[in-house]
Write a structure and sequence with these properties.
This protein is of the alpha/beta class and 360 residues long. 37% of the residues lie in helices and 20% in strands. The protein folds into two domains: 6-134 and 257-281, Response regulator (Rossmann fold, 3-Layer(aba) Sandwich), CATH 3.40.50.2300; 135-255 and 288-355, Response regulator (Rossmann fold), CATH 3.40.50.2300.
């Protein structure tokens, strides 16, 4: 499922607003369903989408009635749950996981009057919109913090699947580190899973044993943060601020914010203006940000990161600008322009400074 995405992603690129015709207004309350790929915990990927659901409730009150199903594996189970939500009368269904894309499309064909939002997917249909965030922008900023804080010049990265979104994060993190610390190296461990706390913890411990004194991760639990806290190392929180789990280990958090987008889309269904389309927002749009600096991070480093965040929002800084070389020494770009959105969306390499392969 996660291999050979380059051609299809380029064909689907580039999250430009190609919209279908709006639909008719619906009667209140609008029933909205959410499907979560992992258990709902106090922090992480699912938590951020749950906060988005709660934001819809808070903003729209009695105009909506929301529900969610948690810990739904990608594949046949997802298709069943999505179909059940449609049969239960939900008129807007959010499916926030990459592996939900095909099940969402299949169910959408059976329920043409239901609107679906495939979050992190890239295939649209008349009643299926897609949305994603430029997570890599936050990763670059976290890399700056990690590059300033590391003493060993080695960072670790616990990664889920080798899809473009994950590669964007690893590469942006590495480029951010090396922008302030050219000696920095990033070692990657692939899990081929989004949520597996015991293996996430083991991967982090392995990286600490390989001289990494700071770790980042692209998985769904807080296990990496807890491992860093246990070992007295540093860590970059992802999805959520995780200082409650790792008060001493966390140096920064890359956080995601879905409430505004989810509320907008619910309002559009209510007033009949909902259209299928593509959205790819980042720091500028408020969908990604860094915050939650740890107490060990000097104010000068915090200020530097926040200035760079403003630079990204204004367009002054682009994480993938300039000449880029992969970790096999081959040039990917040679000019100042850097990577295009098409190239970012179909990313299939690791940049210089990453020790690892693409995985399987």
């Amino acid at each position: 499922m996660y291999k050979n995405l380059a051609a299809t992603l380029v064909a689907a690129c580039c999250f430009t607003p190609v919209f279908s015709q709006p639909t008719a207004p619906v009667k209140e309350p609008l029933k909205i369903g959410f499907v979560y790929v992992a258990p709902l915990t106090e922090a992480g990927w699912v938590r951020q989408h749950e906060e988005g659901r709660q934001a819809v409730d808070a903003a729209l009150g009695g105009k909506v009635r929301t529900t969610f199903v948690e810990n739904v594996p990608e594949g046949a189970d997802a298709e069943r749950v999505i179909r059940d939500l449609a049969l239960q009368g939900n008129q807007l269904i959010f499916t926030p996981s990459f592996g939900y894309m095909e099940p969402t499309l299949k169910v959408a064909r059976e329920f043409p009057q239901v609107r679906f939002e495939s979050i992190t997917g890239y295939k649209t249909a008349p009643n299926v919109a897609v949305a994603n965030a430029r997570y890599y922008e936050g990763r670059y900023l976290a890399g700056i913090a990690a590059g300033r804080m590391t003493k060993t010049n080695v960072a670790g990265y616990v990664a889920g699947f080798p899809i473009p979104e994950v590669l964007q994060g690893i590469n942006a993190f590495t480029l951010g580190m090396r922008s302030v610390n050219p000696k920095a190296l990033v070692k990657v461990v692939w899990l081929n899973a989004w949520f597996d706390p015991p293996r996430e913890r083991d991967a982090a411990m392995t990286l600490f044993n390989q001289e990494a004194d700071v770790v980042a991760f692209h998985t769904g639990s807080t296990a990496v943060m807890a491992a860093a806290q246990e070992r007295g190392k540093m860590a970059v929180a992802y999805h959520s601020d995780m200082r409650r789990i790792a008060p001493d280990a966390q140096i920064i958090a890359v956080t995601h914010h879905w409430g505004s987008y989810y509320t907008q889309r619910a309002k559009a269904v209510l007033d009949g203006s909902w259209k299928s389309g593509n959205v790819w927002g980042g720091v500028k749009e408020g969908m990604v940000s860094v915050s939650g600096f740890g107490k060990s991070v000097p104010k000068a480093v915090q200020d530097e990161v926040l200035v760079r965040q403003k630079d990204i929002a204004s367009g002054k800084l682009h994480p993938f600008a300039g000449a880029i070389t992969d970790n096999e020494g081959k040039p990917v770009t040679s000019g100042k322009a850097g990577l295009t959105d098409e190239q970012i969306l179909s990313m299939n390499f690791l940049v210089a400074g990453v020790q690892g392969t693409l995985g399987k």
